[in-house]
Amino acid sequence: MESEKPNIEKLQQKIENLENLLDIHKIIIDNSVDWEILMTMDGDFTYVSPSCKIISGYSASEFTENSDLFIQIVYPLDKELVNHHLYEKKHNAETDSNLEFRIKTKDGNVKWIEHFCQKVYDNSGNIFGFRSSNRDITKRKEIEIELKKANKALDDERHLFSQGNVIIFKWKNENNWPVEYVSSNVKEILGYAEEEIISPQFIYSNLIYPGDLERITKEVIFYSNQQTENFEHTPYRLICKNGKIIWVSDYTIILRNETGEIINYIGYLVDSTVIVENEMKLREQNNEYESLNEEYKSQNEILLKALVKAEESDCLKTSFLQNMSHEIRTPMNAITGFASLLDNPDLSCEKRKSFTTIIINSTKQLLSIVTDILTISSLETKQEKVYINKVCINSIIVDLFAIFKTQAQNQNISLYTKQQLNDKQSEIYTDKTKVTQILTNLLFNALKFTHEGFIEFGYNLKTDIEPAEMEFYVKDSGIGIKPEFHEKIFERFRQAETGLSRLYGGTGLGLSISKSFAELLDGKIWVQSEPEKGSIFYFTIPYKPVNEIDKTPTTQNENFRTVLVAEDEEYNFLFIKELLIDMNLKLIHAKNGQETVEICKSNSKIDLILMDIRMPIMDGYTAATQIRKFCSDLPIIAQSAYALEHEIEKYSGIFDDYITKPIDKDILKHKVMQYINQQIDK
C-alpha cells in the first residue's frame, strides 16, 4: 500500500495540471473574437463562447437550450447549403472544411459568417463531436462585392472605351503611380503602346507636365486623406511620346481594401485639349472685356463723382450766395438804418454815440465779409502771393490775445496762450499776415462755437522731423464737430452743418481760406474733435529761424529750477514771466487750482509755487491745502489783490509767504530767489 501512495500523488498532480490547462484554454476561448461552438454527434450544443452575443445578438444559453436556433438564424437562401455541409461533415467528410454563409441577427440585420468545422476525437480515437469556429466577415464581403462590381464595371468600360478619346488607367498606390492597366486606345492618343506603359520601368508621373506635377500630387494626397470614393482633377497637361502636349480631364476612383487602405486608383482621362484651349481663349477675351468694363466703370465713377461734385458745388454756391446776401444785407441794413436816424436833430448825445458805434461795428463786419470774398477769389484764380519777412511769432500770440481777451471775458470764457520758445527763438521767416489770418479765423470760430469753458491757443516746435516745423493749435471746449465733417469743413462755401449758418452766422469761407494759406506756406491744417467734447485745430508752417540757435527751448532746460505759476489771468502770467525772464527759471503755467494740484502730483521737480488766491474751479487756498497733504515742504507764495492783515493771518498757516497785487518786481524777485536758494541748500 505504501508503494502505491507516490503513484496516486503523481496522478493527482497530473489531474490538477490538466484542470489548470483546461481553465486556461477556456479563458482563451471565452475571450476569442470568434464564435466557438462544441456539439455532440447528435447535434446538441455543449459549449458556446460569449462572442456569439456580439455576432448574432443571441446569448450562449439560448443556443445551449435550443440547438436548432443555429439553423433557424441562417439566412433562408443559405439554409440548404449549411444543412448539406453539416450532413456531409457528420457522415462522410474526414477532413476539416470551411463555409461562408449569412445569418439573420436578433435585431434583424444580415451578417456574413466564415464557418470552420472539424471533428473532435477522444483519447481512444473515437469521434465524440464537432468544433465549429465562426467569424464575422461582413465588412470583408461588402468590400469583395464592391470590388467585383468595380472589376465588372472596369471590364465593361474597357470594352466601351477601347475606342475614342477616353483613356482608362489603373495605378498602384505607390510612389510615382506605376501603371497596372491602360486601355488599348492609349497609343492613338499618347503615342505609347500598352506594354510600354505597363512596363515596370515606366513611371506615370513622367507623363505629367512638370508645371502641373506638384498640383496633381497635392490633389491626390488631399482627396486620399478625405476618405472619399472618387474625385476629379482640374485639367492638367500630359506629354505625348512625340513631345506634343495635350490637356486631359481626369476623373479618378479610389479602391480600398477591407481595412480602408488604398490599393489602386482608376482614372478616366478625357482628351480635352480643344475644350481647354477654347476656354483659355474665351478667358483671355473675357479678361479683356472685364478690363475694358473696369476702365469704363472707373471712368463712369469719375464722371459720376464729378457730376455729384458739380451739383453739390452748385448747391453750395447757391446756398452760399443766399447766405452771403443775408450776411451782407444784415450790416448794410444796420448802417443805412442807423445812419438815417443820425439826421434827427432831437437825437440825444447818448443815442447818437450808440448809433455811431453800431454803424462802425457793422462797417467792420461788412468789410470782413468783402475781404473774405476778395481773398477766396484771389485763391481761386491763383493770384494770392506769399510775402516772406522776419516775424516774431510770440508777438503775434500776444497781440491776438489782447484782441480777443475782451470778447472772451464778455462770453465768460477763459482765454489762455502757450509759447514754447522765447522771443529770440520765435523769430522766423514767414508771411506774418497769413499766419495771423489763420489764427484769427480759428480763434473767431472757437469763440463763436464755445458757450462756456475755455479757449487755449499757441504753438509747439517739432524738431523730431526734418525739416523742423512750428505746430500751432487752437483748442476749445465748444460744441465739437462730427467725424464725417472733419475734412468737409475745409471745403469752400461749407459749414459743418447747414443749419449752423442760420444759428451762428458766417460765410463758411474762413476755414477754406485758412487751409489755402497753410498750404501756400508749405504747411497743412487739420482738426481733432468730437461732438460736445470740444475741438483742437492744428496747422503747421516750416520753422525757418532768423537766428541760428539751438532749437531746444531754453525753458525746457532740465538744469533750471522750476516755478509753478498758478494764475487764471493770461496777462498776469505773461507779466510774471517777463519779470523773472533773467533768472533762468523754468516756468509752468496752471490756470486754476485743480490743475495746480494735478501738476504737483505728476511733477516732483517743482521748487516753488506762486499761487493766486482767486481762481476758477478751485481757489488757491483750497489747492494749497490739498498740496500740503502730499508735499508739505514745497514752498508756496500766495499772491492776491487783498492786503488786509486778517487776510494775511488767515493764509499764514498754509502759505510760506505773501505778495500783494500789483506785484512789485524787486519784491517778487527777492522772494523767489530766497525760496529757490532754500531748495538748493536742501
Report the β-strand fraction as a percent range. 15-25%
- Mind telling me the CATH class of the largest domain? Alpha Beta
Name the CATH superfamily assignment of the largest domain.
Histidine kinase-like ATPase, C-terminal domain
**Helix content range:** 40-55%
Average pLDDT across residues?
84
Q: Give a count of the beta strands, DSSP E runs of length 2 or more.
A: 23
Q: What is the terminal separation in angstroms?
A: 123 Å
**Which word captures the global form?**
elongated
Give a quick account of the main beta sheet: strands, pairing sense, barrel closure.
Answer: 6 strands, antiparallel
Give the count of helical stretches: 20
In the CATH classification, which architecture of the largest domain applies?
2-Layer Sandwich
| Rg over alpha carbons | 53 Å
Overall number of structural domains: 4
Estimated structural class: alpha+beta
Low-confidence parts: 499-503, 551-558
CATH topology of the largest domain: Heat Shock Protein 90
What features would you highlight for this structure?
single chain, 682 residues, alpha+beta, Beta-Lactamase, Heat Shock Protein 90, 4 domains, 6-stranded antiparallel β-sheet, 5-stranded antiparallel β-sheet, 20 helices, 46% helix, 23% strand
